[in-house]
Amino acid sequence: MGSQIQDIVALTESNVYVSDGVIHVEVVHVDRFGNMITNIPGIRLMLSNSVLTIGGFEIYKISTSYASDDSLIAIIGSHGFLEISTPGGNASAKLGSGNGTQISIVPQAN
């Protein structure tokens, strides 16, 4: 089935906290494509009325595909965690960010 994996990365919800209604998460892994994987399962997110802020960028929705005209997207990756991605590019390099980068999810008024 392939070569044996030596560098298993277990993603946890450590360091996810809420302060004044803002959810704070962090990047826990950057994959070989430059996608930044966070420590919050996508099932816990409801970004339809929220703004995700990272490195001065704001993201207003979760994309359903890596194919997008947006320069930076939020997407639920194959392991079920929120990822920050740059379609056709490297989000980590674009933001100059990596492991430990903080992300804020701010609820917006309807």
Question: Could you please describe the fold and organization of this structure?
Answer:
By secondary structure, the protein is mainly β. The chain has a single domain, classed as Bacterial fluorinating enzyme like (Elongation Factor Tu (Ef-tu), domain 3), CATH 2.40.30. It is 5% helix and 39% strand. It has one helix at residues 91-95; strands at 17-19, 22-30, 36-41, 50-54, 57-59, 62-63, 73-76, 81-85, 102-107. Strands 1, 2, 3, 4, 5, 6, 7, 8 and 9 form a nine-stranded mixed β-sheet that branches. It is globular.
Notable characteristics:
single chain; 110 residues; mainly beta; Elongation Factor Tu (Ef-tu), domain 3; nine-stranded mixed β-sheet; 1 helix; 5% helix
What is the CATH third-level topology name?
Answer: Elongation Factor Tu (Ef-tu), domain 3
Low-confidence stretches: none
CATH class: Mainly Beta
Number of domains: 1
Q: What global shape is seen?
A: globular
**How many DSSP-defined strands?**
9
Distance between the termini: 49 Å
Beta-strand share of residues? 35-45%
The helix-strand sequence is EEEEEEEEHE
Tell me about the largest β-sheet.
Answer: 9 strands, mixed
Radius of gyration: 14 Å
Helix content: under 10%
SSE class: mainly beta
What's the average pLDDT? 85
Count the helices. How many?
1
Can you tell me the CATH architecture? Answer: Beta Barrel
CATH superfamily annotation: Bacterial fluorinating enzyme like
Brief sketch in words of this structure:
This protein has 110 residues and is mainly beta. The protein has one helix spanning 91-95, and strands at 17-19, 22-30, 36-41, 50-54, 57-59, 62-63, 73-76, 81-85, 102-107.
